[in-house]
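Working notes for the structural subgroup meeting. M.R. asked for a predicted model of this chain before we commit to crystallization trials. I am recording the input and output together here so anyone reviewing the notebook later can reproduce the run.

Input as submitted:
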Amino acid sequence: MTKTLVAYFSASGVTKKLSERLAGAIGADLFEIEPETPYTDADLDWTNKNSRSTVEMNDRSCRPAIANKTDMSLYDVVFIGFPVWWYREPSIIDTFMESYDFSGKTIVPFATSGGSGLGDTTKNLKAICPGANIVEGQRFA
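Returned structure, recorded in token form:
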């Protein structure tokens, strides 16, 4: 029997709502990826070159700390939800993906964005999670 998890990071609540609907529709468990230091509105100001999100996204090695964990061994399929930042997944998603062994698991990325696609997300996740089956994701407005 396949066990499914919907794990998500939501900066403004949009991805949270979508994740809750998805988990309910497919009968999956739900897990919120929470940053150790929550993002403020100023942190999320993508027009400010010095905002936290801009600094993190400009440094590909940046790995923001996560406040919580889950038992990933329970799941065969993991949907990973996030807002698109700079045409890819936010750095906190990279932290999350590197925190677990996804070998043999199917990973399904999904994202919220007003216009940007997933960009390099699939390629990035394949590099981070060798041994996982990363499928093409979907963007939702």
